[in-house]
Specification:
heterotrimer, A alpha+beta (about 375), B mainly alpha (about 575), C alpha+beta (about 350), B: about 575 residues, MetI-like fold, about 0% strand, C: about 350 residues, alpha+beta, Rossmann fold, OB fold (Dihydrolipoamide Acetyltransferase, E2P), 2 domains, 21 strands, about 35% strand
Chain lengths: ~375, ~575, ~350
């Protein structure tokens, strides 16, 4: 595999604030690679370093086989000489130019002949589904259409590398879903490399060949395929960032693993070592809730009917976990619990995390856990 | 993959930065520094005692006190009038709101010294039309009102300055989230209680900020006091500076008095602006609405008719009447004749437009000066604003500081500073030429250009420029293809914001003119002083027409932009 | 016992009818939600109850007391209605402290000072704001501001609480928390709630009954579970969750046939129809509604609806499929571990809970 972006030992400080402290990353040719992380984690800064809008304090960036940034070697390609396409969160289409003029601007700069320019311009406009709108001004377009113009403008010069900076964040939910498929389609069809930056884990899962998860300190926690990241998270941060997460404190007592400060035993395969403090991580869908049978005994603290799902907050010996049941299933299987009713919890899947590794992300976990 | 060719961003940033700093230093900073230098350095030594001595001279001291009295009175009066009218047109069911709002903004356009002249014609103790009417027809013993007084000056300034508060408060009231008032209502409060306890406190920062603008303007205001005060020996700081410089033809003592007074003005202005900035950043509440309904309107009921009549009378008396008087007097054969058909004609207008060399020169001077100043300031302003708003370059802090200067330097200070700088003492002598006025105009109006262009540039998001860069455009191509076209509306606005006021400029030109470099303002003022009242009024009428037509054109232009 | 009563209420803005002949009875202590897309008339209705909008026709009562009636030319102004109200943009007054914000309605009513202090502190205590009493509300977070607004509305211990999208300006985590707090306050103080929202999950979780509104016309009034289990029409169905609609016509001999743009009708097995489907005349249109998570993949030979997978995306907890059925598209969502077909494969589907709409 050929590496198209190679980042080595990048250091970037803003005053005293250290955004990146020696970051390495490589993106393969032809893949759709996503940088996923909470806002303020430095993922956009990294993208801007690659584009040449910011200069690192140390480190090297190569695009293809050319070193484009190397402060030590005095190398600094200006953004217009890096041969990339880029799409911005706020579209950045030029309001004083028509769709056609916006899209063909890179060709105009490259001195492409007029006939050729018209032909390629119309082709690219058609490719992003904007036929017949070439004479419009951006103010006459919707947000989604403007983002299509930005996409066409970034694609027209056939760059081998596209940088996308949260391109869908300003669109409404339906359009966001539609556009992510289109971006994926275009990437496959044109065989370009995409480096995509987002904080939205759903977009990242849907669109990427590989994902890099960054934490709020700018450190990369895990790189892998969407399925790997979701199913085999490297640590609790990744686990909680990718979806609703429950964390149950568990203590080893003899050979048994007990929930919270209580006496109930978790019935699951044992963790890998002998530490005494553990956390059991699982998603709401990893939990089965029943009226009786094998499992942990608990009571319903709060039952909320949310339409499609019944959402339960369950108390197990003083610790809380959340689970939900699809309403039609709950109705069919008599799982419509009421507040204060007792219930039984069993697991379909469970991950062991060292209690130490959970410290510091607890806050965030609670926040995300509720964002169902 | 094809290999890339390295291109650098060449060092154009330092060049632009250097040019920007140079312009501001030469045009604004040097004159101001020369004033401070001349005020505090006597024979090469720092001398504070002498400054105190100058200030404690009776004339100087009185002028300082007068400036304080007039600006305080004007500020209080304008704030009350402006807030009251703003509340009336945004929060009550008074009829014809749109029309009234437009009329209350008219005084913004009218030069207040022309207004002062009109009021002089109406209310001077012996010759004023109103006073004469009361004395002759109604048998009053003396004049009912003497416009040559503190009260007269303050009233006239209020008429022309209250829109500063009116505009700010109207804006705040219109943008205010109506649910702030609705929630008080559902809490059980009636509309008068809400106005008192909720609405007015919430817009208080806007009221104060408008009031401070008026204070600043009135402290440094020349025209009204010059027209109405000098007659009765009432001088404020700018008029005293003018009088000293004008009469003593540049003697050392008069220059010193001038520079000391100018220093007081600069310091006061800087303090007022600092205070205003503080109120705007810290005292401002987040009261702007997201989704909105029409705010509730107070039903005036029995008060509706009286308040409506009051407003109409106010508009008729303060806006229509003075304007009509100017045009009528401008049509008279001789000042003092009654307004009858046989005494009125367009001859004066024809004369000053086509035959009278003094006024023709004045119109030509004003138009060319205004045009040149507007063009130069527009381009300089867009460059300086670009550095301040968009560029990341070392040394920008100096420029940001220099960029604040034009806002806090009043016209008469600039005029004095320009005299000090360009009278040959430092190698270049522009005194008595049209160039010195041009330099002064550029300094005076730089603030307008910076404001309009910075606002336009702030609308141009960085990503629009970055998008061009990744498309392959160099920095220059980005400026040419993206930035300049996008800030063009701001530049055009800056042009008109400078061109129109310069047509009626008085404060600066009155201190710098020579017999061949009169401007319209100077011509109106001097004709009036020389007793050529009808010619002065006719020229004032022409100026009003020019200004109103110009303003209407800009409003059209900006309204179309806004609708887009 | 009905507490707030709207009788034949209509509101017109010029030619536009914002609310059309609305009849409504809200019980004492009930939490009643009005749900609908923006512009459906729900906020206008709330504002008519509050007294910020006049009625064009009809009457509004609180208990036995008439508060609005254009016919009788009677209109009680909002400040006399003694309601509590909370607005979307919080509308707390930045120039007053948290304490003074909450005390404002009591001061207006000229209660004795000790009484004002007691009630203000009670309201602040119920909303966990006692420690912030002296602060300026500008320094509080969105959630804090909305608590101030709630405490201010509670201070006079109103019988009726009007809530106008009170949680829309909060982030999702806080939104959920506040939902429970509102519910707890209602239990504690016993007021009736008239709640306006466009968020169906919020309405479901909070309400005793829900009204779904569209263009000023009532679509359904029922308990949350009934609205979910038996949506009255296609609009209600589509508004309360992800939805699929298959458009069909009755073919020869009452065979259900998929509509298609190119005019080649494809018939579907009759067993996808719900039991309450009523056969119509040949050529008459009808729709089958289903939810993406209430569709199963079944073995191709066991009947069901045939389709081809056109898109499959892994979204974490679920896998999202887009399936072409005839010329139409269905969306299916399954848990990430559930087996499913790949893109391009033919599959058979069973709708678990289809709804029939004519």
């Amino acid at each position: 595999m050929e590496e198209i972006i190679k980042i080595e030992g990048i250091v970037k400080n803003y005053g005293k604030h250290n955004v990146h402290g020696g970051l390495d990353l490589a993106v393969q040719k032809g893949e759709c690679f996503t940088l996923l992380g909470p806002s303020g984690c430095g993922k956009t800064v990294l993208l801007r370093l690659i584009a040449g809008f910011e200069q690192p304090d140390a480190g090297r960036i190569s695009i293809g086989d050319t070193v484009v940034t190397d402060p030590a070697g005095g190398v600094n390609f200006s953004p217009d000489s890096r041969g990339i396409g880029m799409v911005f969160q706020d579209y950045a289409v030029w309001p004083h130019m028509t769709v056609f003029d916006n899209v063909t601007y890179p060709l105009k700069l490259a001195g492409v002949a007029k006939d050729e320019m018209t032909k390629r311009g119309m082709e690219t406009i058609a490719m992003v589904g904007m036929e017949g709108l070439d004479k419009r001004l951006p103010s006459e377009l919707s947000g989604g259409q403007q983002q299509r113009v930005a996409l066409a403008r970034a694609l027209i010069a056939k760059p081998s590398l596209m940088l996308l900076d949260e391109p869908l964040t300003n669109l409404d939910a339906n359009l966001r879903e539609e556009m992510r498929f289109e971006i994926k389609e275009l990437q496959r069809k044109l065989d370009i490399t995409v480096l995509y930056v987002t904080h939205d884990q759903e977009v990242a899962l849907a669109i990427s060949d590989r994902i890099a998860i960054m934490d709020d300190k700018g450190k990369i926690r895990q790189i892998g395929s969407p399925w790997d990241i979701f199913e085999s998270p490297a640590d609790p941060f990744v686990f909680s960032f990718m979806g609703i997460a429950n964390f149950l404190p568990v203590k080893r007592s003899g050979g048994d693993y007990l929930v919270g400060d209580g006496k109930q035993v978790i019935n699951w395969k044992k963790p890998s070592n002998d530490s005494s403090d553990w956390v059991a991580g699982f998603r709401p869908s990893d939990v089965e809730i029943t009226h009786g049978g094998e499992g942990l005994r608990g009571t319903i603290k709060r039952a909320s009917f949310l339409g499609a799902t019944m959402d339960y907050l369950v108390d197990i010996d003083g610790t809380h976990l959340r689970t939900s049941v699809e309403t039609h299933v709950a109705l069919a299987k008599d799982l419509m619990f009421k507040d204060e009713e007792s219930c039984v919890i069993s697991f379909r899947n469970l991950l062991w995390f060292d209690a130490e590794s959970l410290k510091g992300i607890e806050q965030q976990v609670e926040g995300r856990g509720a964002q169902a | 993959m094809k290999s890339l060719q390295q291109r650098h961003d060449f060092g154009i940033a330092p060049v632009i930065l250097f040019l920007s700093i140079a312009i501001l230093v030469i045009v604004v900073a040097v004159p101001v520094l020369l004033i401070l230098f001349n005020a505090f350095w006597v024979d090469g030594t720092f001398n504070l005692a002498d400054v105190v001595k100058v200030i404690s001279e009776p004339d100087t001291y009185q002028a300082l006190i007068n400036s304080l009295i007039i600006s305080t009175g004007t500020t209080i009066g304008s704030t009350i009038v402006g807030t009251f009218f703003a509340w009336l047109v945004t929060r009550t069911d008074i009829p014809y709101k749109g029309f009234m709002k437009a009329m209350f903004l008219v005084p913004f356009m009218l030069p207040s010294f022309i207004g002062a002249m009109a009021w002089k014609m109406l209310l001077s103790p012996r010759a004023g039309f109103i006073n004469r009417f009361f004395m002759r027809e109604l048998g009053f013993d003396g004049p009912i009102f003497n416009i040559y007084s503190y009260a007269g000056i303050i009233l006239v300034e209020i008429m022309y300055l209250f829109p500063f508060v009116f505009i700010q408060v109207c804006g705040a009231l219109e943008r205010m989230d109506p649910t702030l008032e609705e929630s008080a209502r559902i809490s059980g409060a009636g509309l008068f209680t809400i106005t008192r306890k909720i609405t007015i406190p919430l817009v208080l920062p806007s009221i104060l900020s408008g009031a401070l603008l008026i204070m600043l303007y009135s402290m440094a205001h020349f025209g009204t006091v010059a027209v109405l005060g000098i007659e009765n020996g009432i001088f404020n700081i700018p008029t005293l500076i003018y009088q000293r410089i004008h009469q003593s033809a540049g003697s050392f003592a008069s220059i010193r008095t001038g520079t000391v007074l100018a220093t007081v003005l600069v310091i006061t202005a800087a303090f007022i602006l600092w205070l205003q900035g503080k109120i705007l950043t810290h005292g401002h509440y987040q009261i702007i609405a997201g989704k909105s309904f029409r705010p509730m309107e107070l039903k005036l009921r029995a008060l509706k008719a009286p308040l409506f009549i009051f407003c109409v009378a106010y508009i008729a008396f303060t806006i229509v009447l003075p304007t009509v008087v100017i045009f009528l007097v401008g049509g008279l054969k001789t000042y003092g004749l009654p307004f009858t058909w046989e005494n009125l004609s367009l001859n004066n207008y024809k004369f000053i437009l086509f035959d009278y060399k003094l006024t023709r020169d004045a119109i030509w001077n004003s138009v060319t000066l205004g045009f040149s100043a507007a063009i130069i300031t527009m381009f300089a302003g867009v460059m300086i604003s670009y550095v301040i708003v968009k560029m990341k370059v070392r040394g920008k802090g100096i420029l940001e500081f220099l960029g604040m200067l034009p806002f806090s330097v009043p016209g008469s200070v600039i005029a004095l500073g320009v005299i000090l700088a360009w009278s040959g003492k430092y190698g270049v002598n522009l005194y008595n030429t049209v160039w010195i006025i041009l330099v002064a105009y550029i300094a005076r109006y730089m603030a307008f250009s910076l404001r309009a262009n910075s606002a336009a540039l702030e609308q141009v998001h960085d990503s629009l420029m970055e998008a061009a860069r990744v498309c392959g455009a160099s920095m220059w191509q980005t400026l040419k293809d993206i930035v300049l076209p996008l800030v063009r509306p701001g530049m055009i606005a800056a042009f008109f914001l400078i061109f129109l006021p310069s047509l009626r400029e008085l404060t600066v030109s009155i201190m710098l003119y020579s017999p061949t470099t009169r401007t319209i303002g100077v011509a109106i003022y001097t004709l009036n002083e020389d007793g050529e009242t009808v010619m002065s009024a006719a020229l004032a009428g022409i100026a009003l027409i020019l200004i109103v037509v110009g303003q209407t054109l800009i409003n059209r232009f900006t309204a179309r932009k806004g609708a887009k | 016992m009905s507490h707030v009563r709207l009788v034949n209420v209509t509101k017109k803005f010029g030619d536009v009818t914002a609310v059309n002949n609305l009849n409504l009875e809200i019980g004492k202590g009930e939490c009643f939600s009005m749900l609908g897309p923006s512009g459906c008339g729900k906020t206008t209705t709330l504002r008519m109850v509050a007294g910020f909008e006049d009625l064009s026709e009809g009457e509004v009562y609180v208990g036995d007391r008439l508060i609005s009636s254009p016919a009788k030319n009677y209109y009680l102004p909002p400040e006399k209605r003694d309601f509590g109200m909370v607005f979307q943009a919080f509308a707390v007054w930045p120039h007053l402290s948290v304490y003074e914000n909450v005390a404002f309605p009591l001061r207006i009513r000229k209660l004795p000072a000790t009484e004002i202090d007691k009630r203000t502190k009670d309201a602040l205590a119920s909303t966990n704001l006692l420690s912030a009493a002296k602060d300026s509300p500008e320094n509080l977070s969105g959630g804090g501001k909305q608590r101030v607004a709630l405490a201010r509305a509670l201070a006079i211990n109103p019988d009726v609480m009007l809530l106008d999208e009170p949680l829309s300006s909060l982030d999702p985590h806080l939104r959920e928390e506040m939902r429970f707090e509102i519910k707890d306050l209602q239990r504690q103080y016993g007021f009736s709630i008239l709640y306006v929202t466009h968020d169906q999950a919020e309405a479901m979780a909070l309400s005793d009954r829900i009204l779904v509104m569209k263009l000023g016309v009532v679509q359904q009034i029922d308990t949350p579970l009934n609205v979910y289990n038996k949506p009255a029409n296609k609009f209600v169905f589509s508004f309360i969750g992800l939805s699929n609609f298959l458009e069909l016509v009755w073919g020869v001999n009452g065979a259900p046939t998929l509509k298609s743009e190119d005019g080649t009708p494809s018939s579907v097995p009759a067993d996808i129809l719900p039991s309450d489907a009523v056969c119509g005349a040949q050529g008459a249109s009808f729709s089958i509604a289903s939810r993406p998570y209430e569709i199963d993949f079944v073995a191709p030979d066991s009947g069901g609806l045939k389709g081809v997978v056109s898109r499959k995306s892994f979204l974490g907890e679920i896998i999202d499929y887009q399936i072409k059925v005839g010329g139409q598209e269905l969306r299916v969502q399954k848990g990430r571990r559930a087996p499913g077909p790949e893109v391009g494969e033919t599959c058979a589907l069973r709708l678990l809970r289809p709804f029939f709409y004519q």
